[in-house]
Amino acid sequence: MRVAVTGIGLVTPIGAGTREVWSGLLAGRNGIRPVESFDTEALSVHNGGEVRGFEPTAAVAKMPGRIGRSSQLAIHCAEQALEDAGLDLSTFEPGRLSVAMGTTTGEPLEIERFDDLHVEGHENTVGPEFMGLYPSHAISRHVAQAVGAAGPNVTLPTACAAGNYALAFGLDALRHERADLVLAGGADSFTRIVYTGFARLGAISPDRCSPFDLHRQGMIPGEGAAVLALEPLAAARRRGARIYAEVLAYGLTCDAFHMTGSQPDGGGAVRAMRQALDTGGVDPAAVSYISAHGTGTPTNDRMETLAAREVLGSAADSVPMSSIKSMIGHTMGAASAIEAATCALAISEGRIPPTMHLETPDPECDLDYVAGEARDCDVRIAMNNAYAFGGHNSSVLFGHPDAS
């Protein structure tokens, strides 16, 4: 079965809504600003990718009880994706509607709230609702509640690769006819737990994220969400839907090497890329765009360059690869979902967003990173790469829907 992307919902530090985010990415808009949601005075870094001015949707207000920020972001994107796809859910059997969401931290703000109350000696004010708010699986459950999806429901907490894992789940659910529609994506909210952790690791850049630049100083944490509506290509065509792209295949591997460090030779990333290409029956030379994990850390950028060269061979020099984290920061479990949406839009619109702040090329990072300015390109095959703590590697392939 061929599977289409027919709807996209996005919330990022540069805007809410697919068109606003896409135009911002193409313009190279910077969503990295001084952190406002908590005090960073005790830290040596102070910038982050926060979503400013976000307001929960009406669906959130109608749901019983309080809902965490990550779930709010996810619901917002799910509703966007459904509206964008022009889908009437009343025509679907609820048990055939599936939700798959990726995340790194679930609802960390709920943990922070509990910790603050504990430090103040008021933990006895925390009620039983806490147990239903913070677990990672609350995100996909809340999305399902909001839209009435009673089919397969899963949250995949595979950190920064989680959005790709959710898309892989969605592709399988449709191909094995376990669902007729899948809302797949990722969500994470900005949190001092993550920010402080990366700051203590010395992994946060003090000013900006500069993937593949010789003077890059690290990543910058962010927040956001993305949801893609996936449905059988034949069904989408029958109803005359706009089709952004086709989901072709995926590759998932583990380095089994180190908790936080990637395999130095990029072996796990290479296996994931090759698995996706082999499963999809795609010649490496046919890849026309790579959405890079591109965190701006020395280890990741070198490893990702090595892996691309190993897999694509001589074609690597002519394949554009860019990192949108240079504009929105690292949105954790939402990152690869947002980047998957970028791949689908690049195929549909024929444009590639740039890697910003790449001013002094690193001799060890010697590919075409679309530095500084968006580029017109007939993208027929796009590869979305994402790597995560724990050694999780993921590659998802998207194709032009008109391809045979």
What keyword list fits this structure?
33% helix; eleven-stranded mixed beta sheet; 15 strands; 2 domains; Peroxisomal Thiolase, Chain A, domain 1; alpha/beta; 404 residues; globular
Description:
This protein has 404 residues and is of the alpha/beta class. It has 2 domains: 3-238, Peroxisomal Thiolase, Chain A, domain 1 (3-Layer(aba) Sandwich), CATH 3.40.47; 246-399, Thiolase/Chalcone synthase (Peroxisomal Thiolase, Chain A, domain 1), CATH 3.40.47.10. The chain is 33% helix and 19% strand. It has helices at residues 18-27, 58-62, 69-85, 108-119, 130-133, 138-147, 162-175, 192-200, 233-238, 267-280, 298-312, 325-328, 335-349, and strands at 3-12, 15-16, 33-34, 47-48, 97-102, 153-156, 181-188, 224-232, 245-254, 289-291, 321-322, 351-352, 375-376, 381-388, 392-399. Strand 1 (3-12) and strand 2 (15-16) form a beta hairpin. Helix 3 crosses helix 6 and helix 7 (162-175) packs across helix 13. The longest helix is centred in the N-terminal third of the chain and has 17 residues, at 69-85. It is globular and about 65 Å long. The two termini are 13 Å apart.
